[in-house]
Amino acid sequence: MLGLMQNHPLLISSLIDFAARHHGDGQIVSRRVEGDIHRYTWKDVQQRAKQVANALNAEGLNAGDRVGTLAWNGYRHLELYYGVSGSERVLHTINPRLLPDQIAWIANHAEDQILCFDMTFLPIIQAIHAHCKTVKKWVALCDADKLPQDTGIPNLVSYEDWIGAQSANYSWPVFDENTASSLCYTSGTTGNPKGALYSHRSTVLHAFAAVLPDAMGLSASDSALPVVPMFHVNAWGMPYSAAMVGAKLVMPGPAMDGKSIYELMESEKVTFAAGVPTVWQMLLNYVGQNNLKFSSLKRTVIGGSACPPAMITAFREKYGVDVLHAWGMTEMSPLGTLCTLKEKHKSLSEAERNAIRMKQGRAIYGVDLKIVGADGTEQPWDGATYGDLYVTGPWILASYFKNEGGDPLEDGWFPTGDVATIDADGFMQITDRSKDVIKSGGEWISSIDVENTAMGHPAVAMAACIGMPHPKWDERPIVAVALKPGAEVSREELLKFFEGKMAKWQIPDDVVFVDSIPIGATGKMLKTKLREQLRDYKLPTL
Ligand code: AMP
């Protein structure tokens, strides 16, 4: 027997229609590539997204055709999010920090028909346009008078000209909620990147989960700043979840330095922000150096790579900002776990509560987790036993775009490539990417633990721990360290700093000082590159 309730497919267009109708005057604030601030409302987003849809019709794009973007967080990108997906095409966000060859490879693999780009990336487009075989129109996200004449790019139009010729009179089509909505390629640190193809259903369900109180807890009373880019996993879904609850949305454009982010937070009374640790480190450095405080910021979600405990403590204790440590991946839309405490934790001491906050957190409804040992059996949730982390749920990838790499699932579970523990309360803690695990004398050493400890030293800006071959122990850890500007610490002092904080055999054998730790296109440390840089390195203990 079927239920007797209305059957509305979960479509992305319903989010923008809801925001326009119920939060029509809710503000959208963007820092533009030109540097100025642009303001308008959710109602305006809806109207201009409909102009985008009409422009795509005028180009003759079919349902399912891909429209690429190479763009910062900003209002025009937001309009494309809704106009492209809402009209049943697929929004393909591309990471502009990749090499031009990789960008061309991805655009060709996705068979993008139109590619929209911020003017910052004009040189990239000039370098690759001739190699992008399927792109028939290039759209520069700028005013008509900002488009240079002699770019050498055929079929180039300014966004404002392109949508300006269209009316906002458009009815969103209604279709199966499992239809593809957007596409994001993984970082591809090994081999070619692979596409995660999200659906309307997965995106809307993910937005529902993201706004729950134990997740991001977003509401209409928030001023929300996604510093996480809209070109990588849809800025953790914030363009959708902000519309779902009618939050004010503040977008930083290209200005990601500590000063610009801080000033935007203050001027727009931002209450909630989301970002990766590397960006927050720049913000904390700026705020610390200038003796500033946050006047409106209440909480921030930090994820994408392990958030150093020192960062969580600085935000909480120095600035009164609650940090939610979160974990996820491109293949998971991306949210999997967030670290919010349970009622039973109220009676714990602050130190005990802090120890929990350092973990990557609990699964949100919709996501299930398990850890699996080398023998293939599920491991206990005791907070100590490590295992390969597997996930399953309705916003988790079932197979890659064009079925690249075959069926990734094992018994319906997606292998994350992370190694983790889960405690009795369901709090998961990542110890490593499986390829970064350091095995010393048959025991695993968590590179994240080593890095977190090193980052607790006031002179250290960034630390990366890797294993080095050792004839007796197989591998021993060393830590590469980049110091804060003007800060000093010796190798011996830093090694001493580890004492009492980690077991003796887990303490790295050496400290290597570097100018900077190599960072990849999504703000994560590139350990492959660091290993290359330290190719000729020899352990001092040998
Ligand atoms: P990506 O798909 O590029 O977003 O990368 C996903 C990977 O980033 C995960 O599989 C983890 O290895 C890593 N990651 C994400 N969030 C965290 C976190 N909070 N702590 C540690 N690693 C993380």
UniProtKB/TrEMBL annotation:
AMP-dependent synthetase/ligase domain residues: 20-401
Cross-referenced Pfam families: AMP-binding, AMP-binding_C
Listed GO biological process terms: fatty acid metabolic process
Residues covered by the AMP-binding enzyme C-terminal domain: 450-524
InterPro entries xref list: AMP-bd_C (IPR025110), AMP-bd_C_sf (IPR045851), AMP-binding_CS (IPR020845), AMP-dep_synth/lig_dom (IPR000873), ANL_N_sf (IPR042099)
SUPFAM superfamilies: Acetyl-CoA synthetase-like
Recorded GO MF terms: ligase activity
This protein's UniProt keywords: Fatty acid metabolism, Ligase, Lipid metabolism
Stated family: Belongs to the ATP-dependent AMP-binding enzyme family.
Listed name of the protein: Long-chain fatty acid--CoA ligase
Naturally occurring in which organism (per UniProt): Ottowia oryzae
